[in-house]
Amino acid sequence: MLLNAFIIVWRESLEAMLVIGILAAWAEGRGGSVRAGLWSGVAAGGALALALSAVMQGALGSLSDRGQEIFQALLILFAAALMTYMVLWMRRHARGLRREMEGALNRAAEHRGTWGIAAVAAVAVAREGAETVIFLQGMASGVGWGALLPSALAGLSLAAFTAWAAARGLRLLPQHQVLRVSANLLLLFAAGMLVLGTDRLIGMEWIPPGPDPLWDTSAWLDDGAGAGKWLADLFGYRARPAAANVLVFCAFWVLMAAQHWWSARATPSAAA
Length: 272
Prior knowledge:
9 helices; 272 residues
């Protein structure tokens, strides 16, 4: 889970910093009030993400043990679904993101002035921050915030360095390749979180496990130690999986393959 937290925070923070870079470039030379509204919105977006974290922690602490168990299971599944949606959305919109954001800023500046600019910036930053909070909260259900915090801070630091290097033209790796690889990693993490969420639902007796275990590879690769535990934490590997785990994992990748095939099929049609 620690590497998951590192990569997720790095990826989400990098996206947020790229968004802020687009906003700042648009505001350059447009006057002090525009820039003030922009940075006020950025700060407000960050504050909204932190407020969401506090609300979720408060809600979790007010629940009974059974309520916490249900909340954590549903949050893990929601985080997996949100992570998958975010990756697919970015694949569709990444190329037009700058144009869309600049269009939104121009409309906001024209109709609502400084407050409109601040609102656009706040929503853009709050969205990235909220995604990060939900992803981390889902993972913290298994290991706790204290264990995730160092990895999350390291991911944030690397994102800041990556954004700084990109701004200075230090292209150590092609940006589109970095984002593509990280997107594929996030899909692997989402599959692992679905397996974890399925474990929780089975434990609460909300869904039947089916044949359990469906097989046993613990003699070759135990998921409780060494490389097996690393794969279990990252990607949902189970040495003795229930049939429900296997069904959910396979269904996820069948859907991802179908979506990829459909997108590849639709792209030439759109171009034509």
